[in-house]
Specification:
The complex is a heterodimer. By secondary structure, chain A is of the alpha+beta class. Chain A folds into three domains: 15-243 and 283-302, no CATH class; 305-423, Alpha-Beta Plaits (2-Layer Sandwich), CATH 3.30.70; 426-537, 2-Layer Sandwich (Alpha-Beta Plaits). Chain A has helices at residues 18-27, 31-37, 43-47, 50-62, 87-95, 109-124, 133-136, 140-152, 169-187, 200-216, 243-247, 264-273, 276-282, 336-348, 388-401, 415-422, 504-509, 519-523; strands at residues 161-165, 226-233, 295-296, 300-303, 306-314, 325-326, 329-330, 352-357, 365-379, 405-413, 429-438, 454-461, 474-488, 491-499, 515-516, 527-537. In chain A, β13 (474-488) and β14 (491-499) form a beta hairpin. In chain A, α1 runs antiparallel to α9. The longest helix of chain A is centred in the N-terminal third of the chain and has 19 residues, at 169-187. The chains are: A alpha+beta, B alpha+beta. The complex binds zinc ion. Zinc ion binds at residues 29-30, 32-33, 127, 129-130, 134-135 of chain A. Zinc ion (ZN) binds next to α2 and α7 of chain A. Chain A: Pfam families: Pus10_C (PF21238), Pus10_N_euk (PF21237). Chain A: This is tRNA pseudouridine synthase Pus10.
Chain lengths: 547, 178
């Protein structure tokens, strides 16, 4: 079959498409939606100006019908095909660029009336299928608006992906329009697959990707770390979806964090499930004419998270790891997390963060040695690219900001690598140093036996101090080695290497006898822990960075 | 604690717990209980130092957590972070009965509303813990008050100062302390 595109001869439409296009335009579809429903996959066809496309399409439907379609399009709701003007005159009309398809000299009155039916009214009206998305928001003007919104956010990016969110009722209207096409095609003994229709989103991107790319000077790709989202709403037709709830109630289960049950996914599912008969009975086909066009939502930008890892020392016994808030009131003025993340947030110009670490220490515990591995996920960073030198400067900035903590091995890592930090956390060993008080006066010899204790198995009930938020259990733990240095008659220094997850404080004071054996039993005296330091966390991630 | 071995730093109980008291339980003179409330709202029930068992240094004959034919505190089991399945106790729910060798029986009560988390099984095999370490290893039970009641449960209890007052007045009235 040969292409019968009129005017510039660009449209890859076939003779058999003519009654379909005619019916679609008469039903109130815009020119681009008419192409979509004819499954035209030629992107350039959508990219030409809307006016040019409309007049070409107009010319196409006005052309003399072939014998094939003659007499078979009886139920198409427009005027009879015999009233179409001759090809020659139509060519003249489009060459003059009359996008409105209005009166043109030399065209008989009767034909002009026919034009009003199929094109003029369709164009003055908002499209029944796309609600105006492909009519009014697919041009340089809107691309400029999107680009301005992106530029105002001052992101650093070298490509972007454009995403579009459409009102849920578009799926209902799409289905209704598709049923119209399906009936026409079926009446001709042919068939067409709904999946071959070009989706609104797809057509939108074909047109807009290039325009937005031009405005911002970076490629618009199918995948990118930087996402620009545009969206549309159309309150006037929001209720289009409601009838689906009566036929597919299981598709619309109320969910927390959702404003409406009529999410796009739920509507798509319900439309797939509903029978054609029910759909036709409950929803007009073709869809009703909207009075208003859809409205554009504010353009949203999102850069994927950047992960920064390192190790920290904590030198203060009055600094919690994370902000300490009880009954909405702040207990300590700062935290390890805040001291580390404040400079990161401002440098990456990030909107938020998630802090994680390999274990944590109590507020009164110092972390010495090489420090504790940590990772920070920076959410929606406006700047994401830093050289090694810049990261080193960031580390210095953190270290200069406070003498309560110190950070080393700061580096940008992947999301996957952060998993290494949590791997085998339980199997790792940790080393501690503790200042011990004994009730019974001691001499040097009284603590000699401690170094001979190896691989001591202890049973720890969940400590009372964390029992309100952890399950009650008895956990076996191993204290691999201990050494003791005598200080005075009531004090000695104890070094311990233990399985990760051992509660050291409870091992020392016994926690009401709930950790067994405990140091009180070993020392045959009440003992208490006055100071505790983490000397090392044996997790070999992140890799060390040379100075 | 012997003289000269007073420590300069606060003990574990002083650091993390508030001491509350209930005296003369069920009208029985001097049967005083101590409730140690952790800052995380968990409560540990112990004998107060003025309880006859401690005051008179009784020898323990037996400790029984079977408080009725159908209910034993030893059957108590909790699971998960929310401590599902724990027995719910009201203020006057008995926790255990202690019999001394002189034939006296003392009932220890919950004193507060809350979920029973655990009872101290060690005192069954080593009853002397009750006398030697009444406020630590010789504790009776651990109870978790409801979050919304963590403040109100102590309203009917005596503070440390009020308790000391009661004990002092008691000594003044009775020449022979109980
Ligand atoms: Zn449209």
């Amino acid at each position: 079959m040969h292409s019968t595109g009129q005017g510039r001869g660009m449209l890859p439409l076939k003779v058999k498409d003519r009654p379909i296009v005619r019916a679609l335009l008469a039903a109130g579809c815009c020119a681009r939606c008419a192409l979509r429903f004819c499954c035209v996959g030629l992107q350039s066809a959508y990219r030409q100006s809307y006016e040019d496309l409309a007049s070409e399409l107009h010319a196409f439907v006005s052309a003399e019908p072939s014998s094939m379609e003659h007499g078979k399009s009886g139920d198409a709701p427009e005027k009879g095909p015999t009233e179409r003007p001759p090809c020659k005159k139509m060519r003249l009309e489009t060459a003059q660029g009359s996008g409105e398809g209005g009166d043109t000299e030399g065209i008989p009155e009767a034909h002009a009336d026919a034009d009003v039916d199929t094109t003029a009214t369709a164009e003055s009206k908002v499209c029944v299928a796309c609600l105006g998305v492909l009519q009014y928001f697919c041009d340089k003007t809107y691309a400029k608006k999107v680009a301005e919104a992106v530029t105002a956010e001052r992101y650093q990016f070298d490509s972007l992906v454009l995403s579009v969110s459409l009102p849920a009722q578009l799926s209902v209207r799409e289905h209704s329009t598709w049923l119209l096409v399906k009936k026409l095609v079926r009446d001709k003994g042919a068939c067409q697959d709904k999946d071959d229709i070009i989706q609104v989103k797809e057509a939108f991107k074909w047109i807009m990707n290039g325009l937005v790319s031009q405005e911002l000077g970076v490629p618009v790709l199918a995948k990118s770390l930087f996402e620009v989202s545009v969206g549309f709403t159309h309150p006037e037709t929001d209720e289009d979806c409601h009838f689906l709830a009566t036929t597919c109630s299981d598709c619309f289960k109320p969910a927390r964090n959702k404003l409406s049950v009529f999410t796009r996914m739920a509507v798509v599912k319900a439309v797939e499930k509903i029978s054609e008969e029910n759909f036709r009975r409950l929803f007009p086909c073709p869809p009703t004419h909207p009075a208003t066009r859809c409205a554009a939502l504010a353009t949203q930008c999102l850069h994927v998270s950047v992960f920064v890892a390192g190790r920290y020392n904590k030198f203060s016994r009055t600094l919690p790891q994370t902000p300490w808030v009880i009954d909405g009131e702040r207990r300590m003025e700062s935290s390890v997390e805040e001291l580390i993340t404040a400079p990161l947030l401002s440098s990456f110009r990030s909107e938020g963060f998630n802090f994680s670490s390999s274990g944590r220490e109590d507020v009164d515990v110092r972390t010495l040695g090489k420090g504790r591995p940590f990772a920070v996920e920076l959410l929606n960073p406006h700047r994401a690219q830093f050289s090694k030198e810049e990261v080193r400067e960031l580390q210095e900035a953190i270290n200069k900001s406070s003498d309560k903590i110190r950070v080393r091995d700061l580096q940008i890592v992947t999301r996957e690598a952060v998993g290494h930090m949590k791997e085998g956390e339980e199997e790792k060993t940790k080393s501690y140093g503790a200042l011990i008080w004994t009730q019974r006066p001691i001499e040097k010899d009284d603590i000699e036996f401690i170094k001979d204790i190896k691989e001591l198995k202890i049973a720890q009930k969940t400590p009372l101090r964390v029992l309100h938020r952890r399950p009650l259990a008895v956990r076996p733990r191993i204290i691999h080695t201990m050494t003791a240095q005598f200080l005075d008659a009531h004090h000695f220094h104890l070094n311990l290497r233990t399985q990760a997850g051992t509660y050291i404080k409870e091992f020392v004071h016994g926690d009401f006898g709930r950790t067994k054996p405990n140091l009180c039993e070993l020392m045959k005296s009440d003992t208490d822990i006055l100071e505790l330091d983490v000397e090392s966390v044996d997790v070999d991630w992140p890799p060390a960075i040379e100075d | 604690m012997e003289v000269g071995e007073q420590r300069e730093t606060p003990s574990v109980i002083d650091r993390y717990f508030t001491r509350w008291y209930k005296t003369d339980l069920k009208g029985k003179p001097c049967e005083d209980h101590c409730i140690l409330q952790h800052s995380n709202r968990i409560c540990v029930i112990t004998l107060a130092e003025s309880h006859p068992i401690l005051r008179k240094e009784k020898k323990i004959q037996s400790i029984n957590y079977q408080i009725s034919a159908g209910c034993s505190r030893l059957q108590n089991k909790v699971s998960g972070k929310s401590k599902r399945g724990g027995q719910f106790l009201t203020e006057l729910a008995p926790l255990c009965r202690i019999t001394s060798t002189d034939g006296e029986e003392y009932t220890i009560f919950s004193c507060i509303r809350g979920r029973l988390l655990e009872v101290n099984e060690d005192i069954l095999t080593r009853p002397n813990l009750l006398l030697e370490k009444p406020s630590t290893e010789g504790y009776i039970a651990v109870i978790l008050p409801k979050f919304e009641e963590s403040k109100s449960i102590t309203e009917g209890l005596l503070s440390r100062a009020e308790y000391e007052d009661v004990v002092l007045k008691r000594a003044g009235v009775n020449v022979e302390p109980c």
